[in-house]
Amino acid sequence: MSTPVRIAAQLQPQHAPDYGLIRDAVLRAEDAGVDIIFTWDHFYPLNGDLDGHHFECWSLLAAWAEQTERVELGALVTGGGYRNPDLLADIARTVDHISGGRLILGIGAGWNEKDYDNYGYEFGTPGSRLALLKEYLPRIRSRFEQLNPAPLREIPILIGGGGERKTLRLVAEHANIWHSFSDLGTLRRKNAILAQHCADVGREPDVIDRSTSWPGADGAAAYAAEGVRLFTVGVSGPEYDLTEVRNAVAWRDAQ
């Protein structure tokens, strides 16, 4: 393969009544050899008891930045409408410094209505949320340039989503990583659409890493053949069983 495949563990901050369970999972994931540890940016669990135990995204990332030594860190993905974009850039820059330059800024338009309603954000429509993301991305990049001290590196931006007309255009304009939630056939088709958006804005599509959820060792090679270079294994609390994470790392190391 022309560029290395990377493996991420998304340690979902749900159903853990004690933060120590999450801290232990972070330690085990780094020791298992993952390249990236993600969380997600929601305010409630997404499955099981929807009012169950849950912790906040960016507070976790700051703690993980201190705890870890090697892995990159980020949210898969942070909700674009949950924070003022200039403040989000400042938070991200601060976590980047705490980590020694290992932050990935994953961001999306948002979708979970319960988060919006219960925390007082306007849910709007898919179109209005994407319009907000379109407004926020250049503000985030501009704020990065104004912060003192500056981020330790050009913080990679990961955009999650698959809308062909709007989201993929934002990916072409701003992203270093595109996370797709698509099956293989849809990914192949959307890759071609992304390439056209890149041509329209004057970027080479190959500078954007493709990312998706781990399809299992039997399916990963087919996705890699379509250009996927980042696979993420989702792991929920309270057990944080890393068996499949280790399987993914073993597959990576065999390539």
Helical residue percent band: 40-55%
CATH architecture: Alpha-Beta Barrel
Instruction: Calculate the mean pLDDT score and round it.
Output: 97
N- to C-terminal distance: 8 Å
Strand order of the largest sheet: 1-2-3-5-6-7-8-9
**Level-1 CATH class name:** Alpha Beta
* Residue runs with pLDDT of under 50 for 5 or more positions: none
Domain module tally: 1
* Morphology: globular
Q: What is the H/E string?
A: EHEHEEHEHHEHEHEHEH
Q: Any idea of the CATH topology?
A: TIM Barrel
List the total number of helices. Answer: 9
Largest sheet: 8 strands, parallel, barrel
CATH superfamily: Luciferase-like domain
Explain what the structure shows.
Keywords: Flavoprotein, FMN, Monooxygenase, Oxidoreductase. Residues 4-211 form the Luciferase-like domain. InterPro entries: F420_MSMEG2906, Luciferase-like_dom, Luciferase-like_sf, SsuD_RutA_monooxygenase. One of its GO terms (biological process) is alkanesulfonate catabolic process. GO terms for molecular function: alkanesulfonate monooxygenase activity; uracil oxygenase activity. The chain is α/β, with parallel strands linked by helices and 255 residues long. The protein has a single domain, classed as TIM Barrel. It is built from 9 helices and 9 strands. Strands 1-2-3-5-6-7-8-9 form an 8-stranded parallel beta barrel, surrounded by 6 helices. α3 packs across α5 (126-146) and α6 crosses α7 (184-201). The longest helix is centred in the middle third of the chain and has 21 residues, at 126-146. The termini are close together.
